[in-house]
Amino acid sequence: MEKAIIVRNITKKYKLYKNNKERILDLISPKSIGEDFYALSNVSFEAEKGDIIGFLGINGSGKSTLSNIIAGIVPETSGQVKVNGQASLIAVSSGLKGELTGRDNIELKCLMLGFNKKEISELEPKIIEFSELGKFIDQPVKSYSSGMKSRLGFAISVSINPDILIIDEALSVGDKSFAEKSLNKMKEFKEQGKTMIFVSHSLGQMKEFCEKILWLEYGTVREFGTVEEVIPKYEGFLRDFKKMSNKEKEEYRDKVIKLRNSKK
User: What is the pLDDT of residues 23-70, one digit of tens each?
Assistant: First the structure.
């Protein structure tokens, strides 16, 4: 089958600084200042065209970082990503300019994606209708609630008809009826054979919507397989993890990271 996404040994490294002085020293000093933090380390997976893949993992596992790299928003430190087609990321307030109105954001996003003025004028009413923002569409986005931002971002992304759709927790805010409407739209895309990445803490949504699961743990791939194979293992892990004390959770994290670093 045709590959939609190929991720090979992706690593994303950030620098952590104690203060601004360290940040400035790192710019001018010949030696490295600050602590290296690896959000992702040697992550690899492939998505076939039409795959619906869920990204699972506790907070800090690298799900959003990987989503942003695949969408082309954040550059990887090393490794390779190949995306066959146009990818669109839906995340709360992703790519939205707070000072601009909702309508202005629609026009700006569409222009950046290569649409001409005629195409934008045809798309705009559909996007506004789907977003259900009504008169708020002409208010600055900085005045929007997180749910309203999510609605606008979702409406823009699904209306431009991307080849690959990446949904990062966009259905976790806002009201239930809009979430159901969004899921129905995603099911339409699924029937059309589009490739989708779905990031969510809702195992119910994962079971209902996804076919495969990529389980990330502190920046590395712990499991990649079918929903039936991976989710029961993840549910078992969650039950055990929630029983741990804060100290035990820190020790577990340190153990995973130490094992990860030994494989570099």
Answer: 888 888 878 888 888 999 999 999 999 999 999 999 889 998 999 899
Q: Residue 215 sits in a domain of what CATH number?
A: 3.40.50.300
Position 36 in a domain: yes
Question: Does residue 27 fall inside a structural domain?
Answer: yes
152 in any annotated domain: no
Note whether residue 208 is domain-resident: yes
Spatial contact of 195 and 167, defined as CB atoms under 8 Å apart: no
Total domains present in the chain: 1
Using DSSP bridges, classify how beta strands 212-217 and 220-226 pair: parallel, antiparallel or unpaired.
antiparallel
In degrees to the nearest 10, what's the CA dihedral of 261, 35, 66, 234? 50
Domain that holds residue 9: 1-85+197-264
Give the strand order in the sheet containing 3-16: 35-48, 3-16, 78-83
Under a CB-based contact definition with an 8 Å cutoff, are residues 197 and 69 in contact? no
pLDDT digits (tens, 9 = 90+) for 159-199: 887 889 888 876 665 567 787 788 788 888 888 888 999 98
